[in-house]
Amino acid sequence: MPQTFFTSDLHFSHKNIARFCPQFRPATSSPDELDEYMIARWNETVSPEDTVYNLGDVSFAHDLKKTEAVLRRLNGQHHLICGNHDDLVYRHKKRFLDTAKDDGHPLLSSVRSYLKLKLPEIGNTLILFHYPIDEWDGCHKGWYHLYGHLHDRVAHIRGRALNVGWDLHGRFLTPQDIDGFLSGLPVVSRFGDKENTAAGGNTEDAAARVAEQLKRLNAG
């Protein structure tokens, strides 16, 4: 039966990523060795019938052919939520969407910056974005927010939000994994929260209040 997986920040062709995040990567500075390791980890989990939602920063290569060569070997339908290092892919997304890889699927089945995804496996809606969002669509309804970017860290935000990055988990996450992490966490609603309200009586007053509030929020 086809499965769905989530991951982020694989950083193919990045020679220093194992030094920055060594826990789940081999100790080598060779981009080719790192790529082979990550391709093997992908394909031992993901079959050609499966679907992967990758939340950004798929490759550090500045060469389209290098990125294509890696993606061509990855099993499954691969949906990319673009990160800050995916500009090259985004600029040439038609090429990635129209070129077939070894298992017959396109190199990338979709390329976008944001996705709201209904997952029947766990009966919930997910908000997918490369960066952590403090107040995401549906957070007050209990919807889950998945993000990447932080590698082996979790964002300092309350509620049902999860970094799905490889460097935090060392594996690809299933919907059931995500539900296990998040279902017991509180549903966060910002409605009626006056803690950070900074209204003013006129535009000058408002500007002063906003500046003061920003200083307070960033103090110490």
Quick overview of this protein structure:
This protein has helices at about 15-20, 30-45, 65-70, 85-90, 95-100, 165-170, 175-180, 205-215; strands at about 5, 50-55, 75-80, 110, 115-120, 125-130, 145, 160-165.
- Overall spatial form: globular
According to CATH, the fold-level topology of the largest domain is: Purple Acid Phosphatase, chain A, domain 2
Query: What's the end-to-end separation, in Å?
Result: 51 Å
Helix content: 25-40%
Task: Spell out the CATH superfamily of the largest domain.
Answer: Metallo-dependent phosphatases
Percent range for β-strand residues = 15-25%
Strand order of the largest sheet: 1-2-3-4
Give an overview in words.
With about 220 residues, the chain is of the alpha/beta class. It has two domains: about 5-180, Purple Acid Phosphatase, chain A, domain 2, CATH 3.60.21; about 195-220. Helix content is about 30%, strand content about 15%. Strand 2, helix 3 (about 65-70) and strand 3 (about 75-80) form a beta-alpha-beta unit.
